[in-house]
Amino acid sequence: MPGETTTLLNASVGTPQAGTIHSDIARYILITIYTVAFIGGTIGAIAMSFLLVKMNTLSVTTAVIVNLVVLHCLVLLTVPFRLYYYISQKWIFGLAFCKAVSAMMHIHMYLTLLFYIITLVIRWLIFFQWKDKVEFYRKLHAVAASATVWIVALVIVLPLFSARYGMSGDYGNNTCFTFQQELKMESVKALNYVIIATVAAITCVLLGLQVFIILKVVKKLPGSVWSHQELWAQIKSLMFISVIIICFLPYHLFRLYYIQHMKEKQLAIYNDICLSITAISTLDLLSFVISGSRFFKQKIIMLRDKLACC
């Protein structure tokens, strides 16, 4: 599992070098990002919870969204502890809880990616008419599938992360998220390279296929394409991929550089900021709610008409 770094937040900093961020500025950036993620993610989770009441409980897509809401809520519960640390610059909750909070950020990122892939695959199966609908036969099957995912994530991965991670370095009790020493291990480096390559390849495949589908839909639809529900469905699918590109891909691409230049201590700040951007993915539920509203679609069509007249 990739490590997490905030090494320069508590360190005394001399004259900043060109191209680097002062530790105080980095701290304000982190506080801002996590605050936005916490507020927007909480509003989105609440709004989506009301919509889930009206959805088909046997639908696999509904089950995925339910799990996504739970996943976002779990990571949002850890955000106040991060904010307290970045504001006070002191960790008072112990090393074990620090590892758990750190692990939760990574579990959230990769489970979110998994849920996105499942949702996109289901949408594509329906689009290419390989399936009319993808549903569980019984509600118990949906519960069992969800329980399996959470058992693996919280009962196996989280304890393993907490027990094994942070073993190769000497970490103080008053600091947190400073596990960069783990990256000196060849096995950890190899795991990071595999994860980075996998995420990058998956992103390229998802984006390429979705663009192909959108172009196919646009070519097939007559008249104004923005008035067709089929296009809006594909735009919503593109939003999943956009979250991956905006929130997850920068962290992995920068990490590739970071692993190779670990001696440059100022890079720890950039790594930590890139990791915090992954928390912005909690805003996806709010964006889905807004994009699915008639008001939003009407405004898009009005904007398109105004641009066409200019």
What labels describe this entry?
310 residues, mainly alpha, Rhopdopsin 7-helix transmembrane proteins, 9 helices, 71% helix, globular, disordered N terminus
Report on this structure.
- The radius of gyration is 21 Å and the shape is globular.
- It has a single domain (23-309), classed as Rhodopsin 7-helix transmembrane proteins (Rhopdopsin 7-helix transmembrane proteins).
- With 310 residues, it is mostly helical.
- It has helices at residues 23-52, 60-88, 95-127, 139-164, 186-220, 229-260, 267-277, 284-291, 294-309.
- The protein has 9 helices and no strands.
In short:
This protein is mostly helical and 310 residues long.
Roughly how many Å apart are the termini? 52 Å
Average predicted confidence as pLDDT? 81
Approximate strand percentage: under 5%
Element-by-element helix/strand order:
HHHHHHHHH
CATH class reads Mainly Alpha
CATH superfamily assignment?
Rhodopsin 7-helix transmembrane proteins
Largest sheet: none
Over all CA atoms, what is the radius of gyration? Answer: 21 Å
